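Hypothesis: this fold can be encoded by more than one sequence.
Test: take the structure tokens below, design a sequence, compare later.
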């Protein structure tokens, strides 16, 4: 069982959170210029990093706030 530290509520059990995917992904500068294939890449393709990755999380069963954390995808440990 993981413990995730919500910046608003403090340490809570992982069951209170939902993952939102990779953080810091730049949105397309001109969304109307993208082809369907480019949109599909943006929406569905992920880096699938082995190691440290910035991720979005939401405290779904708590305050409802979104925040980003760095997690090691090999160990599932969160960086301080
Ligand atoms: Zn919270």
């Amino acid at each position: 069982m993981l413990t995730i530290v919500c910046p608003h509520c403090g340490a809570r059990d992982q069951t209170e959170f939902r993952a939102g995917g990779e953080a810091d992904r730049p949105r397309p500068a001109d969304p109307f210029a993208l082809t369907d294939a480019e949109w599909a890449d943006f929406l569905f393709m992920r880096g699938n990093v082995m190691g440290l990755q910035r991720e979005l999380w939401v405290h779904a069963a708590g305050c409802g706030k979104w925040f980003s954390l760095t997690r090691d995808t090999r160990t599932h440990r969160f960086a301080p």
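The chain has one domain: 1-26+49-80. Residues 6, 8-9, 59, 62-63, 65 surround zinc ion (CB under 6 Å).
Hypothesis status: open.
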